[in-house]
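BUG: 3D viewer hangs when loading the predicted structure for this chain

Environment: internal workstation, default settings.
Expected: structure renders.
Actual: progress bar stalls at 90%.

Input used:
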Amino acid sequence: MKLELKNSLSVKLLRVVLLSALLVGVVLSCAQIVFDAYKTRHAVETDAERILGMFRDPSTQAVYSLDREMGMQVIEGLFQDDAVRMASIGHPNETLLAEKDRPLKASSSRWLTDLILGQERSFTTQLVGRSPYSEYYGDLRITLDTANYGEGFLVNAGIIFIAGVLRALAMGLVLYLVYHWL
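Structure tokens produced before the viewer hung:
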């Protein structure tokens, strides 16, 4: 009695192994994408801290001397970074010394990246004098548009997902070839 190849136990097991390899590849790719999303959110925070650190001293000097022109120069410097959407220098209880904003960047994938990273992220640092006085003069506030970070994230996510699926398919192909050679 000859068994049909389609109904043999070894072929059924091979199918299960191949599908399992593909499923594991997809799951691992998704886990890598989640980790990459976390790293991208952290990159936004790191960039904000870096930007605020670079502009803290000039902003403090501008708000201390109440120099609007210097404040606007600082703001213009902040806007050299494409991610900066809004920036302001001033004391919270008074009229702002300098401020500027621009619209959110338009992107076809914005609906997806906004779900993952948020539409924008705001950060603030206090402007205080040097020790020993450490007097509070005001705040430097920036809002970063997450569109640039989101575009990079989506490119990486696509590469990670495709590479994971291809890796799983390659592993499945190797298993298939080993099965047929034995």
